[in-house]
């Protein structure tokens, strides 16, 4: 016996010709645009019209005839009569399966033929009867399948026609989904709007507690339109699934790309959806947005007043910064939190800071955890704060090499930026508590001191490049000679900080190219009012540096 299989992607289902038979396929385009599909439709349509108009059949007889299933279950079915007239259609009709003619025409996208069958009384409530795939099950109705087919005026028209003839649009498939919930996943806004005009339940709940609104947020191709349609039709914006997730939680779990989720989130918040609802694991929507790397949603929540330093005592990572360090697959979210006032040295109930959390996660250090630790140190995290057990970050870090390459070098750089006469508390603690790093620290101090005598230009040394912000040296990138000088400079005499200097140079060059060059070039063309001879100096102080501003904000937001 032939078995029908379905191949699906994130696209639309359709039957296609496969040798002498057929198979389910997926498509990104309208299958009716294929000439052979249109030709098969016209063949079948002509055969059906001929059958219906001959032998003076009554409407009851026609209805009985077209409701029969395949030729292998009913030897006098309509399949026989069609094949007598159009043997070319044997690839579609002479199959060892138990699908009705209406099901075959719909799945094959034979548009005129399927409409003709419905108008003559084909059973629109007939279930598929076969489990073909997770998308088409034995309990699927034609409306469930149409919702997953390519968007077209025919699809909308056929759905309306079926509903007008009494098809149950609230029927559920084997997954417990109504037609509307299935349509949500494909973003069929026009189709969904029509369903609700005819009285469908806009707050129907499936076995997971998911309403159409929640489904639109988590799985739709077009949440922007669908959510507006559903709310206009009376959807409950405060609905939550069986795990306590509201529509913002669901939005944070939407894995489709190129969606305007930030706008949707703002729209929902303005409609009264709470950013502070917790799911069954005690997570706010922002926690799920962090886990899925949706920075745009994190920023929307913070812009709408989410407290970046709010304590969540029911989860292990009480504060958002701790949570990002532990759970996020992106280090950039750390910067976003600092921009909204995250306290870099905030301690949880165990006395752990975000840096403690990061260092404790270095059993198997990877590039991501290195970046997270690097960012925390760059913005001034205190390496010597102790948790409730008296451990600081050096006690928790699992790799001596990592401690040296990130933390000891940072202590030395912080010391180098201070006047020589200032006593440096971090240096004293390092010597007293972590003397095993002291020799490496002294090597760092000596290497930094040697950079002071190595000039890139008359006004800039390697020390300036290493210890200053990239914005302070970016103006030098305007001069090709300076760029050539550094790029050809032999840094082998500075093995500890060579990579740091290269990174500082790359940052300065990028800052110049993106932020400064457009303004300087405009000034040179006399678009700005000041004289070109002083353009560079003026622009040097005119362009704000985001990182300098964030560093200042981080310092201001530390706990007293």
From TrEMBL:
What PROSITE patterns does UniProt report for this protein, alphabetically? ANK_REP_REGION (PS50297), ANK_REPEAT (PS50088)
Give the record's keywords alphabetically: ANK repeat, Repeat
Q: Which SMART domains match?
A: ANK
Classification via InterPro entries: Ankyrin_rpt, Ankyrin_rpt-contain_sf, Multifunctional_ANK_Repeat
This protein's superkingdom?
Eukaryota
Pfam family of this protein, just one? Answer: Ank_2
Query: ANK repeat positions in this chain?
Result: 175-207, 208-242, 281-313
Q: What is this protein called?
A: Uncharacterized protein
